[in-house]
Design goal:
The chain has about 190 residues and is an alpha+beta fold. It has two domains: about 100 residues, Orthogonal Bundle (Topoisomerase I, Chain A, domain 4); about 70 residues, Gyrase A, domain 2 (2-Layer Sandwich), CATH 3.30.1360. It contains four helices and six strands, in the order αββββαββαα. A hairpin with a 2-residue loop joins strand 1 and strand 2. The longest helix is centred in the last third of the chain and has 38 residues. The protein is elongated and about 70 Å long. The termini are far apart. The model has no long low-confidence stretch (mean pLDDT about 90).
Length: about 190
């Protein structure tokens, strides 16, 4: 194999780093702030028709006002199950059922709870960074292997720089996302 054919799949590394960011965004969405958001229900699954189903597949989720989420459950038979899943989710929200509607009044967060949530957000961000650094390490390992297969010094350096650049960008994205999530949490 001529060493022109030795390539490091930067797209794959980039995709995997993006994956860490996507996972982080989902984790952030599940952190309840004082504002109502349809995404807070995303992590909650309801046993429906023999399988675990997200709430937004069982009804229409609306946010009519800053501290209220309303779910219009399509199948009346599922109302109690949806309500029970929310109660047991650990979100700390008490659903109020009103006919086919389940109202979720979002309580204001006290100072202590806000601080706790910013800490949790920071932990999520740290895990995302670890995942990104693992992808970086994998990329650098691929470059080392390619060196053994005859990749030129210049190419090694070029790939190493690219991998580092992808890593720096991804870490910066995580930091930015964390900062804005923490501001959102502390906002009264």
């Amino acid at each position: 194999m001529s060493h022109d054919e030795i390539e490091i799949d930067l797209d794959d590394l980039s995709r995997r780093m993006d994956g860490a960011m996507t996972a982080l965004k989902m984790e952030f969405a599940s952190l309840r702030t004082g504002r109502a958001s349809a995404q807070i229900l995303d992590p909650i699954q309801v046993e429906a028709y023999g399988q675990m189903t997200p709430i937004n597949q069982l009804g229409t989720v609306n946010v009519p006002e800053p501290r209220m989420v309303v779910i219009n459950v399509w199948d009346k038979g599922m109302i109690n199950k949806v309500e029970k899943a929310i109660r047991e989710s650990g979100l700390g929200i008490n659903p109020v059922t009103d006919g086919p509607l389940i109202r979720l009044p979002i309580p204001e967060l006290n100072e202590e709870r806000r601080r706790e949530l910013t800490r949790v957000a920071a932990q999520y961000a740290e895990s995302a960074k670890v995942a990104i650094r693992n992808v970086r390490r994998d990329g650098m390992d691929q470059i080392k292997k390619a060196k053994g297969s005859g990749m030129s010094e210049d190419d090694q350096k070029m790939y190493a720089d690219e991998v580092q650049e992808l890593t720096d960008k991804a870490i910066a994205q995580v930091d930015k996302a964390l900062e804005s999530k923490q501001q959102e949490i502390m906002q009264v």
